[in-house]
Design goal:
single chain, 80% helix
């Protein structure tokens, strides 16, 4: 390959776009935990305002599967590259506008209503991002290195999180609480515009994936990819969504709920908690490509099962250490939790696309990834907050993590191994759908 199809350029394009989109997505979660409740829901108590902010946080997760369906449809019909450019543009514009949005004090109920709309658009953009980015990497890579190259977009969340929280950390240290609440929180949202311009420049310069180009040449694209995917892979969709849901629970319990819990219940400073989360996410970012590459040798499913097991074992120690309020122990709690995340998340970049055939791969990978976000991420901070209030202690949140780890483990047990799969092969599930429609399969390969 050369030019726009070189693996180095493709890897960077898949990484930089995902990093920018997750930066946009994460700054909202941090702002929701720290300040959005007071800006957009001032009539609520502090706890109720935080819950309301987390509710708007959840809106994007419900939009993500819709984005997966929408972008998956055109990604499987038109191509991966065009959808990646469009998803980045939608996310960037929505994020920038959140930074300009007046608060409740200025425009009343219109402020939270617009906030919900822009958060929905963020979710829509991110819903199309991940599936296209991992397909960009995996469909360019050789069979023996799919796990490794799929890790580049998988490192995007860590890079985006570190950039987002690093910027918030600097702002909280430099500004007074009044200035931060007044205008400082807007800076990360406005800064997104510059990042999006860079990301668009990189993505426009890459080429379409060879696997999809081959599908175009042989005219094997699905007419309605989402509908065909539901018919061909109903079990795989449910199980893969359930399998990846644990990663969302781990990530958002540690990075979003714990930030609010640590400041309001444990009396820890937000800067200390941001340091702890940034350390754990940095370790996770390094671990993701290691476990992704390892999955090329030992298999995706085996590593994911190990990650789910580690998450279950760490569910209670996570909060035992967090409840001490000691920064070193909190950092340790978060780091081990993020390592469990990495063991699952690293292989998932290749695992989810490999579970689906080329005709339906964008739709299948995107919808399962984002549907897992609904199961695990959309309500994780809210569920954790409610469980804490109901039980009067963190043990209930630990039990929730343990339950989700068991659910993920069971789903993985029922899925097949895929790391030796030929991505160009027309799957038996898709042949059955074609036969039901009275169409003949186009040979053994696409």
């Amino acid at each position: 390959m050369s030019g726009g199809g070189s693996l180095g350029r493709v890897a960077f394009a898949s990484f930089i776009g995902t990093a920018i989109e997750f930066y946009d997505f994460y700054i909202y979660g941090t702002a929701a935990a720290l300040v959005l409740g007071g800006v957009f829901f001032p009539g609520f108590s502090e706890a109720a305002g935080t819950l309301a902010a987390f509710a708007t946080f959840a809106v994007a997760f419900f939009a993500r599967p819709l984005g997966g369906v929408l972008f998956g449809h055109f990604g499987d019909r038109v191509g991966r590259k065009a959808m990646l450019v469009l998803s980045l543009l939608i996310m960037g514009v929505a994020t920038f506008l959140i930074g300009l949005l007046p608060g409740f004090a200025a425009i009343g109920i219109t402020a939270p209503a617009l906030l919900v709309l822009l958060r929905f658009l963020q979710g829509l953009g991110l819903g199309g991002e991940w599936g296209g980015a991992v397909l960009l990497a995996t469909e360019h890579a050789t069979e023996s290195r799919r796990g490794l190259y799929s890790s580049f977009p998988q490192m995007g969340p860590a890079a985006g999180f570190l950039l987002a929280n690093g910027l918030f950390l600097v702002l909280t240290l430099l500004l007074s609480e009044e200035k931060f609440a007044s205008w400082g929180w807007r800076v990360p949202f406005l800064f997104s515009l510059a990042l999006v311009v860079v990301g668009l420049y990189v993505r426009i310069s890459i080429s379409e994936t060879p696997v999809f180009r081959r599908a175009l040449e042989t005219r094997t694209r699905a007419r309605v990819p989402f509908w065909d995917m539901l018919r061909a892979y109903p079990g795989v969709l449910v199980l893969s969504s359930g399998a990846i849901s644990l990663t969302y629970v781990l990530f958002y319990t540690i990075t979003t709920f714990s930030l609010a819990y640590g400041t309001s219940e444990l009396g820890m400073s937000s800067s200390t908690l941001l340091y702890c989360t940034m350390i754990s996410v940095a370790v996770m970012g390094v671990a993701v490509p290691v476990f992704a590459a390892l999955s090329d040798r030992v298999g995706r499913r085996r590593l994911c099962l190990a990650g789910a097991g580690l998450a279950g074992l760490w569910a209670f120690p996570l909060f035992w250490l967090l409840d001490t309020g000691e920064p070193l122990l909190v950092a340790l709690a978060f780091t081990v939790g993020m390592l469990a995340f990495a063991v699952i998340y690293g292989p998932m970049g290749a695992y989810l696309p490999e579970l689906y055939g080329t005709r339906l791969r964008y739709s299948g990978a995107a919808v399962s990834y984002n549907l897992g976000g609904v199961f695990g991420g959309a309500l994780a901070p809210t569920i954790a907050t409610q469980l804490m209030a109901w039980a009067g202690g963190s043990w209930a949140v630990s039990a929730y993590i343990l339950f989700m780890a068991a659910l993920s483990f069971l789903c993985l047990l029922l899925l097949s191994e895929t790391y030796l799969t030929d991505l160009s092969e027309l799957r038996e599930e898709e042949r059955r759908v074609l036969a039901e429609e009275g169409e003949s399969a186009p040979g053994e390969v696409l």
